């Protein structure tokens, strides 16, 4: 089954089972990128502005690489796609490719949780996945570039997964419009949060991600390559960071959903 979501077809893009299939596929991407990152030490220096001297920039090495990656990817339309959100909007350039015509799927909104995602990534995810109490004491200068490259891949995948919450929210709004209009009009963020929450689905996500971290994180043949990634850290990351921020995206998207509509 090809689970890649078709953003050129509105009804498919808003079908909740298609959206969830996309979230499931992104779990694989995130798990594999985590395994890539976890083979290197924490390398704290790459997250500190000026920690690694960069000619003409006082950004951290990771921010520098992320910004430059976004700049070049903007040229091939990455940020025209409604499921992509930049960390450095000011770095984006006019695409060299012709614009694509996407049907309107999402309502106009300016929700972008990337600052929060990056902060929690640096402060919580990386220390849990790449602990400093290793034999290398958490640093190896020769892996700075590789570590930052893995970070960029991971942050982009996490951002995509989390901002898919907008499609989930739009789909739920379509399903239960009257209920959401009332909650949104009342400014009831907590009520919206409760209405978009599905504990059963969350439990399934956590169970599945644990199995994936354990399975993908161990070599099928070589005993010494077991537990390439701490599955408990991965489950906690989903439970405490990814799912909660996805819900913030859903709630904040819905809070803007009535602008310019008949319900405003
Ligand atoms: O699948 C959904 O319905 C979502 O809203 C996504 C998600 C998640 O982040 O995985 C978030 C909130 C729900 O409680 C369940 C799952």
TrEMBL record:
BP term (GO), one: chorismate metabolic process
Pathway(s): Metabolic intermediate biosynthesis; prephenate biosynthesis; prephenate from chorismate: step 1/1
- Top EC class for this record: isomerase
Where is the protein situated, by its record's location annotation?
Cytoplasm
- The EC code for this enzyme is 5.4.99.5
How the protein assembles, per its UniProt entry? Answer: Homodimer.
Q: What is this protein called?
A: Chorismate mutase
The species is Talaromyces atroroseus
The lineage, from the top, is:
Eukaryota, Fungi, Dikarya, Ascomycota, Pezizomycotina
